């Protein structure tokens, strides 16, 4: 049952919400803006309503996967299912393994695992984006902060390890953004 739950979680994570929103409007979101299927690119190119739907859908994928794992097997399986959803969002089978940068799906996963940590990271994201106007910088800082929140909230070691793995994936997926931030060419929000 555990293997099936992880596979289902990967497939849930692979549902390309942003891509489907674009297709519903006759747009391939991968051909616009940053080319990413995630919330920020959807927001910038399809508007705030579509962006909010993408955020909710992508976060929902992560939350559903964690809840599935918890229901079927407890903490170990909820972590595995959460990671599978993140992998599905990042490398979706339905889009040739080219997906999003995991921030919204990761938010949903952490809301399911440790809501307080997710809300602390979200608050930090808001502060960084408000101060510097870079969504990518806020996303990176929020992801990298997650292991700290796990420590401060005295979560089990496996949650800390999980948060470290997710932070590494998030930074990896943001390498092009990091290069643009360092070069001063990253897009700011208005």
UniProtKB/TrEMBL annotation:
User: EC number(s) in its UniProt entry?
Assistant: 2.3.1.275
Q: Which domain of life is it from?
A: Bacteria
Q: Which GO terms describe its molecular function?
A: acyl-phosphate glycerol-3-phosphate acyltransferase activity
Q: Sorted alphabetically, which InterPro entries does this protein's record hold?
A: G3P_acylTferase_PlsY (IPR003811)
The UniProt transmembrane annotation reads 6-22, 102-128, 134-152, 159-175
Write out the entry's keywords from A to Z. Acyltransferase, Cell membrane, Lipid biosynthesis, Lipid metabolism, Membrane, Phospholipid biosynthesis, Phospholipid metabolism, Transferase, Transmembrane, Transmembrane helix
What is the topology of this protein in the membrane according to its UniProt annotation?
Multi-pass membrane protein
GO BP terms, alphabetized: phospholipid biosynthetic process
Q: Name one GO cellular component term.
A: plasma membrane
ATP-binding found in the keyword field: no
One protein family per Pfam: G3P_acyltransf
Annotated pathway, please?
Answer: Lipid metabolism; phospholipid metabolism
Question: Where does this polypeptide localize?
Answer: Cell membrane
The reaction(s) annotated as catalysed by this protein in its Swiss-Prot or TrEMBL entry are: an acyl phosphate + sn-glycerol 3-phosphate = a 1-acyl-sn-glycero-3-phosphate + phosphate
Provide the assembly information: Probably interacts with PlsX.
This chain's function reads:
Catalyzes the transfer of an acyl group from acyl-phosphate (acyl-PO(4)) to glycerol-3-phosphate (G3P) to form lysophosphatidic acid (LPA). This enzyme utilizes acyl-phosphate as fatty acyl donor, but not acyl-CoA or acyl-ACP.
Give the record's family classification: Belongs to the PlsY family.
Q: What is this protein called?
A: Glycerol-3-phosphate acyltransferase
């Amino acid at each position: 049952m555990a293997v099936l739950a992880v596979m289902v979680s990967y497939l849930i994570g692979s549902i390309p919400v942003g891509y489907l929103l674009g297709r519903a409007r006759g747009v391939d979101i991968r051909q616009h803006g940053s080319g990413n299927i995630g919330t920020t690119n959807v927001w910038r190119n399809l508007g705030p309503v579509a962006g909010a739907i993408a955020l909710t859908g992508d976060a929902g994928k992560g939350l559903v996967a964690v809840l599935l794992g918890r229901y079927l097997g407890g903490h170990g399986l909820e972590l595995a299912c959460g990671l599978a959803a993140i992998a599905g969002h990042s490398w979706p089978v339905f889009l040739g393994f080219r997906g999003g940068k995991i921030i919204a799906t990761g938010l949903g996963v952490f809301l399911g695992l440790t809501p307080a940590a997710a809300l602390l990271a979200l608050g930090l994201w808001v502060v960084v984006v408000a101060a510097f106007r870079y969504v990518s910088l806020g996303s990176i800082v929020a992801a990298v902060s997650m292991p700290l929140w796990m420590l401060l909230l005295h979560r089990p070691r496996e949650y800390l390890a999980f948060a470290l793995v997710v932070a590494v994936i998030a930074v990896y997926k943001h390498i092009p953004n990091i290069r643009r931030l360092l070069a001063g060419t990253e897009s700011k929000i208005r």
